[in-house]
């Protein structure tokens, strides 16, 4: 497993996510891809999600639904403070999938430089 993947996995676990959720491996892949190329955030629905979905043998629609499930779990009260820590601020609403991926990739770039 690449170093980025280990860091991403640990950060996801820190905010209350575990590998038993279908979207967990896909989220690791999506964040890893964005760490390699931030421009993918601007084409999430047309490039990022379809690429990740294909790699994990699912559809873009299912992948996005699984990402929303992960994000909603992080948004629950017991995990929210940790999510705020990752975001670097208090959030007023649950982040979208692309906002979540952006927050994670930024947190990893700042706190785990290569």
Tell me the span between the first and last alpha carbons.
15 Å
Strand content: under 5%
- Count of DSSP H/I helices: 6
Order of helices and strands: HHHHHH
Low-confidence stretches: none
What's the average pLDDT? Answer: 94
Q: If you compute it from the alpha carbons, what radius of gyration comes out, rounded to the nearest whole angstrom?
A: 13 Å
Structural class of the secondary structure composition? mainly alpha
Which features does this protein show?
114 residues; mainly alpha; globular; 6 helices
Describe the overall structure.
There is one protein chain. With 114 residues, the protein is mainly α. It is 70% helix and 0% strand. The chain contains six helices and no strands. It has helices at residues 3-14, 23-36, 44-55, 60-75, 77-87, 97-111. The chain is globular. The model has no long low-confidence stretch (mean pLDDT 94).
Question: What's the arrangement of secondary structure elements?
Answer:
Layout: H1 3-14, H2 23-36, H3 44-55, H4 60-75, H5 77-87, H6 97-111
Helix pairs in contact: 1-2, 2-3, 2-4, 2-6, 3-4
Describe, in short, the structure shown:
With 114 residues, the protein is mainly α. It has helices at residues 3-14, 23-36, 44-55, 60-75, 77-87, 97-111. It contains six helices and no strands.
